[in-house]
UniProtKB/TrEMBL annotation:
Protein name: Aminodeoxychorismate lyase
UniProt GO molecular function: 4-amino-4-deoxychorismate lyase activity
Pathway annotation: Cofactor biosynthesis; tetrahydrofolate biosynthesis; 4-aminobenzoate from chorismate: step 2/2
UniProt xrefs under PANTHER family: AMINO-ACID AMINOTRANSFERASE, AMINODEOXYCHORISMATE LYASE
The keyword Repeat is assigned to this record: no
Organism, scientific name: Pseudomonas neustonica
Catalysed conversion reaction: 4-amino-4-deoxychorismate = 4-aminobenzoate + pyruvate + H(+)
Quaternary structure, from the entry: Homodimer.
Keywords on record: Folate biosynthesis, Lyase, Pyridoxal phosphate
EC number: 4.1.3.38
Length: 275
């Protein structure tokens, strides 16, 4: 499809009207996924669905898996190339935090053109802005892509300059966790390290995929707490998500990094998903 594209499904119907009583609007009571569409399909759909399953168990949401699969396939075919924003909410309810006894999950899907990022981000690398906004600790919600993204909104609002493509976000103790829209990897002492997300942060599907691919090729990725000084002393740094793949990180404050060979390997692994 050429030109700007916007396709919207609400519970399988083409409409853009949502009841004002929806708990996703009132309380952020729900989950979301942003899914890349290539060649009329969503190659990472199974991984997005796995994360939705984890989130639904935690939030005690009913997961309409079969209907979602139909919706995603339908929009993907129509888009050809683009992205799907999928939102699940607990549906409508009366005033108050108590979960309605008869809650019916609402599924919302927006189909649109693919996100466009400058080619030099992948080739030459990106600079990170050091965000002051901190991620609060909530182990129950850690790793999930729930609807409350206010921490990320505040972090992203800290810079407007095009000199920065992403921002580093730390937790309350000052330890690096992730970037505003992507996960973080560092090459330390001959191995890849990615921050532990058991207290906060989003467990990205590209992060999980890269960990698996590295291990399949005989490598190893350490998932652990990382100190700020460790990040600065790393040999290579990169960030990743399912939309842009892998971006080499070349600068944070006064620290500069080269675009190293191990980062290039990770870029290759990420690209293979969409071939």
């Amino acid at each position: 499809m050429s030109g700007p594209v916007t396709l919207t499904l609400l519970n399988g119907q083409e409409t853009d009207c949502l009841p004002l009583s929806d708990r996703g609007l009132a309380y952020g009571d729900g989950l979301f996924e942003t899914i890349r569409v290539v060649g009329g399909s969503a190659p990472l759909w199974s991984r997005h669905l796995q994360r939705l399953e984890r989130g639904c168990r935690t939030l005690r949401l009913t997961l309409p898996a079969e209907q979602l699969a139909i919706d995603v396939e339908r929009l993907a075919r129509r888009l050809g190339e683009g992205l799907i924003k999928l939102i699940l909410t607990r549906g409508s309810g009366k005033r108050g935090y108590a979960i309605p006894a008869n809650a019916e999950t609402t599924r919302i899907l927006f189909g649109s053109n693919a996100a466009v990022y400058p080619a030099e981000h992948a080739e030459q690398g990106v600079r990170l802005f050091a965000c002051e906004t901190r991620l609060g600790h909530q182990p129950l919600l850690a790793g999930l892509k729930h609807l409350n993204r206010l921490e990320q909104v505040l972090a992203r609002s800290e810079w407007q300059s095009s000199d920065y493509a992403e921002g580093l976000v730390c937790d309350l103790t000052g330890q690096p966790i992730e970037c505003t829209m992507s996960n973080l990897f560092m090459r330390i002492a001959g191995a890849w390290v990615t921050p532990d997300l058991s207290q906060c942060g989003v467990q990205g599907v590209m992060r999980d995929l890269l960990i698996e691919r590295v291990q399949q090729e005989g490598g190893f990725v350490q998932v652990r707490t990382v100190g700020y000084d460790e990040l600065l002393s790393a040999d290579e740094v990169m960030c990743c998500n399912s939309l842009f793949g892998v971006w080499p990180v070349i600068q944070l404050g006064d620290r500069h990094w080269p675009v190293g060979p191990f980062t290039r390997q990770m870029q290759s692994l990420a690209k293979q998903v969409y071939l």
